[in-house]
Amino acid sequence: MKFICLLVFLIFISVSLYSQSSPGIYIQLLGIAQDGGYPHAGCMKSCCTAAWNNDSLKRYVVSLALVDSVNNQWWLFEATPDIKYQLEDFHETTNGKFNYLPNGIFLTHAHIGHYTGLMQLGREVMSTKEVPVYVLPRFKTYLETNGPWSQMVTLKNIVLHQLKADSVFSLTDEIKIETFAVPHRDEYSETAGFK
Ligand SMILES: [Zn+2]
Ligand SMILES: [Zn+2]
């Protein structure tokens, strides 16, 4: 199942191939690891020992920024448990050219590595104003009906936008997002892929 989470991420990479024809539009990777990040909580085996002892080997959970540098807009794909570092990384590496918060957040599914970072937008931390969050229908209902996410909807920290699987919509004049269903363990939500 970890493999499939990463598979969802690999789908993201295809964005770069499609965007190269539009000047100023690119993606920036903000993380590459499975839901638990790297090193993994509680792992004392050889796979993680080096990363526990060396910060430069640590990796954030999978996420990327879709950037339109001509129109100074950007969108975040996945709100991970590492979101506070990833927002700061994006801000620093782009020299503050863009708004600190993205113009929207696309979420693939309700496994912890992919959406729980939303909590940083809530009342206890950034208390954001109406950040658009794009999700498939079942995921939308899940966020609307379970805390702490439902409070963020009520307080309008986020505004949910319902996507439709196997459809395309225009994010801007130059960026189209294709949403499709990905087979995965769908306990709380469907799983979306984006192209
Ligand atoms: Zn998953
Ligand atoms: Zn390990």
Q: In brief, what are we looking at here?
A:
This protein has six helices and nine strands. With 195 residues, the chain is α/β, with parallel strands linked by helices. One zinc ion binds next to loops.
Features:
single chain, 195 residues, alpha/beta, Metallo-beta-lactamase, Chain A, 6-stranded mixed beta sheet, 3-stranded antiparallel beta sheet, 6 helices, 9 strands, 23% strand, binds zinc ion
Q: Pairing-aware structural class of the strands and helices? A: alpha/beta
Topology-level CATH name: Metallo-beta-lactamase, Chain A
CATH architecture: 4-Layer Sandwich
Number of strands: 9
CATH homologous superfamily name? Ribonuclease Z/Hydroxyacylglutathione hydrolase-like
Q: Please tell me how large the radius of gyration is.
A: 16 Å
Strand content: 15-25%
Q: Could you name the CATH class?
A: Alpha Beta
- As residue ranges, the low-confidence spans are 6-19
Q: What fraction, in percent, of the residue positions are helical?
A: 25-40%
Please tell me about this protein's structure.
With 195 residues, the chain is an alpha/beta fold. The chain has one domain (2-194): Metallo-beta-lactamase, Chain A (4-Layer Sandwich), CATH 3.60.15. 29% of the residues lie in helices and 23% in strands. It contains six helices and nine strands; from the N terminus they run αβαββαβαβααββββ. The chain has helices spanning 2-19, 46-53, 83-93, 112-115, 137-145, 149-154, and strands at residues 25-31, 63-68, 73-77, 104-106, 131-135, 158-162, 167-170, 176-181, 192-194. The strands form two sheets. The chain has a six-stranded mixed β-sheet, sandwiched between helices. The chain has a three-stranded antiparallel β-sheet with strand order 7-8-9. Helix 3 links the parallel strand 3 and strand 4 (104-106). The longest helix has 18 residues, at 2-19. The structure holds zinc ion (2 copies).
